[in-house]
Design goal:
The complex is a heterodimer of chains A (383) and B (252).
Chain A: H1 10-13, H2 19-38, H3 41-66, H4 74-90, H5 95-117, H6 123-142, H7 144-147, E1 153-154, E2 158-160, E3 163-165, H8 170-191, H9 194-204, H10 206-211, H11 216-242, E4 244-245, H12 252-265, H13 271-304, H14 309-323, H15 328-343, H16 347-361
Antiparallel strand pairs in A: 1-4, 2-3
Chain B: E1 4-13, E2 16-26, E3 31-35, H1 42-49, E4 57-62, E5 65-66, H2 75-78, E6 80-82, H3 95-102, H4 111-116, H5 119-138, H6 154-167, E7 172-176, H7 184-199, E8 204-208, H8 212-218, E9 221-226, E10 229-234, H9 236-241, H10 243-250
Parallel strand pairs in B: 3-8, 3-9, 6-7, 7-8
Antiparallel strand pairs in B: 1-2, 1-4, 4-5, 9-10
Classes of the chains: A mainly alpha (383), B alpha/beta (252).
Chain lengths: 383, 252
């Protein structure tokens, strides 16, 4: 077990608390930089999606994990970023201008959405953000002069100061990696400064926060704006990666996927965004493979156990019809969320910390280390 | 003008008068206690002072300034900090983070500076951290710095709440039942700390308390309330001997 002996207040402030982290994060970064030269183009493309989802995950962790304001409208912020990019690019505005512009516009919309949040909390806020997402979806479908409506919109290759960045190339991968690392650093900086602590205060006790001098309205709006701006940046990258955007790409299901990123990854730390994004992006090809392979596997297993060929064929048909049933993906997603909330509310990152502690303390780890502690009644009167 | 004055303040919830034209004033460096049976309006007065409630009528003056219209989040900056009867700590944060939130009213850094974590932010953070450390030392909270509040025992949480209030460097501290839920030893510690807060830190203390032995030990003056009205005020002995107070507690 490592004990960090503290002699300086800087040690509480710095991000990498001890030398071991320099090693592990250095190796991780080196692997990420080397990855395009090591993995195939399919996996590289999936990794780009992991980065984009992780940026949205970081945004949601700031808003939901740290400020305690749930949102099911982040697909709409992604859409606003994506359409800003598409529209501005079609007007000949360079990437270096429309990338920050998308962040600013989405941030401003986020601040506007933040205002109703001053009066709403919990499930009502979720409903309000869903309503917002539907409004945005509808606007995208109807505002044809800008968005081309349901026909959708082609987004051309990024032109960075005369240098094209094709969506399948290594440069695009590094651009996404850079934006992800940047947003993680931004989030971490925020969380170790007064604003981040104000967010945590709002999450845990609004009354106490107010009495400690925190302007609830201001910080809630700030949290929404920051979260939306990050999502808008992810939206620009998303638009270029897809090369075609249309309103039906930004549905409620996408917002639910984003919420899943932080529930599965763990909403209490920025690590969760990345872990959750890996899970969500990689679960889709896994499910597709499962859909194709399980019926064949089941049928051959059944026939090897002595089932007649007709029976095995019937079984295979039944299984593949279940596998291709509409809404199965949503059902599986729902099941995964339920499992995580019931058995690992701290997500993959929480599980990782527990495993790490087990090895650090070996053989002294106690089974009850992470048992829920008794919580005391809180005053509801001042809410 | 007194240090802190409550002038004829009333609070009405529909037909119920929770606080009924209460007036009192607290002098600088005093330990002033409000007592009264359950539902007498003690915590309501605290919530009025920290501006969580808007008074129906009456005024509040702090250092000669009318604070009746000031929004709740600016009260801490003026120098009034408080604790809560049922502990309102930030459960899923470390004790250090909780105390640093107490420094929030002294935060000067802007959002864009914080996002880049400029040297000015680092300097400010270290200064906050140093101030917090002073409070940690004052209240003997050293073992709990990195501990999550959710895992701390009740008695420690009570002290952490006082510490958080002290981190804002208040001139007036409102303690809402500092000894509720504490055992005899912890109550003793609390009584020493309350006196130290006054004598060593020079902070004026206004508290609500039920434990009469604690009240007698620390208070300079006591105000007794019942049904939102003032029954008596004076030294602890005077108030306890007052016939109305005895009637309120024992029934007539």
């Amino acid at each position: 077990m490592r004990f960090v002996f503290k002699t300086d207040y800087n040690q509480d402030i710095k991000l990498l608390k001890h030398g071991g982290y320099w090693w592990s994060y250095g190796v991780l970064l080196a692997v990420m930089i080397a990855a395009p030269y090591l993995v195939g183009s399919y996996l590289q493309s999936q990794m780009v999606f992991v980065f984009i989802y992780a940026i949205v995950g970081v945004a949601l962790i700031i808003l939901t994990g740290f400020t305690g304001q749930a949102s099911l409208g982040h697909a709409a912020f992604l859409a606003i970023g994506a359409y800003t990019a598409g529209f501005m690019q079609s007007k000949g505005i360079p990437f270096i201008v429309y990338f920050p512009a998308a962040a600013i516009i989405t941030g401003a919309v986020g601040a506007m959405v933040g205002f109703p949040a001053l009066r709403l909390s919990g499930i009502y806020l979720v409903i309000a953000t869903i309503a917002f997402a539907f409004i945005v979806e509808e606007i995208l479908a109807r505002w044809e002069s800008v968005t081309h409506g349901n026909e959708g919109m082609r987004v051309r290759t990024i032109d960075l100061l005369g240098q094209p960045i094709p969506r399948d190339g290594d440069a695009f991968y590094f651009l996404c990696l850079l934006v992800l690392v940047g947003s993680i650093l931004l989030a971490l900086n925020l969380l170790r400064s007064p604003t981040g602590r104000a967010f945590i205060a709002i999450r845990d006790s609004e009354t106490a926060g107010k009495s400690m001098g925190i302007d609830l309205a201001g910080y809630k709006v700030k949290s929404f704006a920051i979260s939306a701006a990050l999502t808008g940046m992810a939206g620009v990258l998303f638009a270029h990666k897809m090369s075609f955007i249309s309103p039906e790409m930004f549905t409620l299901l996408l917002s639910i996927e984003f919420i899943m990123v932080i529930i599965i990854g763990g909403a209490f730390g920025v690590h969760g965004a990345v872990l959750g994004a890996i899970f969500i992006v990689m679960v889709d090809p896994f499910l597709t493979a499962l859909k194709d392979d399980v019926p064949v596997l089941g049928a051959s297993l059944a026939s090897s156990l002595g089932m007649s060929p007709e029976g095995a064929g019937k079984l295979r048909e039944t299984m593949s019809s279940i596998g291709s049933a509409a809404g199965l993906k949503g059902a599986i997603y729902g099941l995964i969320i339920m499992m995580f909330i019931l058995f690992e509310p701290y997500g993959l990152y929480g599980r990782w910390l527990k495993v790490k502690l087990f090895f650090q303390l070996f053989p002294l780890y106690k089974k009850a280390t992470f048992k829920r502690q008794k919580t005391y009644v809180k005053s509801e009167r001042n809410r | 003008m007194s240090f802190f004055t409550v002038d004829g303040i009333s609070l009405q919830f529909g037909g119920l008068k929770a606080v009924d034209s209460v007036s009192f004033s607290v002098e600088k460096g005093e330990i002033f206690t409000i007592i009264g049976p359950n539902g007498a309006g003690k915590t309501s007065i605290f919530n009025l002072i920290s501006r969580l409630y808007d008074p129906t009528s009456g005024k509040l003056f702090f250092e000669g300034r009318d604070i009746t219209e000031i929004p709740a989040h600016q009260i801490a900056k003026l120098g009034i900090a408080r604790t809560f009867q049922n502990i309102e700590l930030f459960e899923n944060a470390t004790m250090l983070a909780n105390l640093l939130v107490g420094r929030h009213c002294h935060a000067t850094t802007q959002l864009w500076q914080e996002i880049l974590f400029l040297p000015s932010v680092r300097r400010a953070e270290k200064e906050h951290r140093r101030k917090v450390e002073e409070v940690i030392e004052f209240l003997d909270l050293q073992p709990y710095r990195e501990k999550l509040i959710a895992g701390l025992p009740y008695g420690v949480r009570k002290v952490v709440e006082v510490a958080r209030a002290l981190c804002s460097e208040p001139k007036l501290i409102l303690l809402d039942e500092p000894s509720s839920g504490l055992n005899v030893e912890e109550t003793d510690d609390m009584s020493f700390w309350i006196r130290d807060i006054r004598t060593e830190l020079g902070v004026t203390v206004l508290m609500v308390e039920h434990d009469m032995s604690l009240v007698n030990r620390v208070s300079d003056r006591v105000l007794a309330l019942n049904y939102g009205k003032v029954l008596a005020s004076g030294t602890p002995a005077e108030v306890q001997a007052h016939p109305d107070v005895i009637a309120a507690y024992l029934g007539t």
